[in-house]
Amino acid sequence: MRPALFAFALATVATPALAQQAAPAPQAPVYELRIYYPAPGKLAALNARFRDHTLKLFEKHGMRNVAYWNEQPTKEAPEGRLIYVLAFPSREARDADWQAFGADPEWRAVVAASEAGGKLVTKVDSVFMTMTDYSPRLAPSR
């Protein structure tokens, strides 16, 4: 095949495939799994703070509450842990939502009041997840 004809054939066949590869993939929602290790004797106060304040403030700042659990006590965590999942449209949205949440004067007042007798949490772990194509889909919120 002549070089010019080969280049034309390659461009004709490859261009649609290259264009598809170059198009940005739509962002998948990001789920954040968070694990809170309560300070000794503080799990009930931590649950009360989430129940009475935190969930509403998360929603105010665009965070979608998916589910919350208390881990059963273990040797490593005798009081258990608070485990929850939030959903975000993207990692960028997650970062912006957490920044706005952390700066919210209402949240700062809640923390100050709830931690007057000492910190409620000693450690937080966070894991970022995207849903697999074979996962059952969550029901739409509201």
Q: Would you tell me the structural class of the helices and strands?
A: alpha+beta
The number of helices is 4
List unreliable stretches of 5+ residues. Answer: 1-25
- Kindly estimate the percentage of residues that lie in beta strands according to DSSP: 15-25%
- Range of helix content: 40-55%
Oligomeric status: single chain
Structural Rg: 23 Å
Shape: globular
Strand order of the largest sheet: 2-3-1-4
How many strands in all? 4
Query: What is the distance, rounded to the nearest whole angstrom, between the alpha carbons of the first and last residues?
Result: 61 Å
Which whole number gives the mean pLDDT? 85
Domain NIPSNAP: 31-136
Signal peptide: 1-19
Pfam families: NIPSNAP (PF07978)
Protein name: NIPSNAP family protein
Features:
142 residues; alpha+beta; four-stranded antiparallel sheet
Structure commentary:
- The chain has 142 residues and is of the alpha+beta class.
- It is built from 4 helices and 4 strands, in the order αβαββααβ.
- It has a domain of 74 residues.
- Strands 2-3-1-4 form a 4-stranded antiparallel sheet.
- It starts with a helix and ends in a 13-residue tail after the last strand.
- The N terminus is likely disordered.
- Pfam families: NIPSNAP.
- This is NIPSNAP family protein.
- Keywords: Signal.
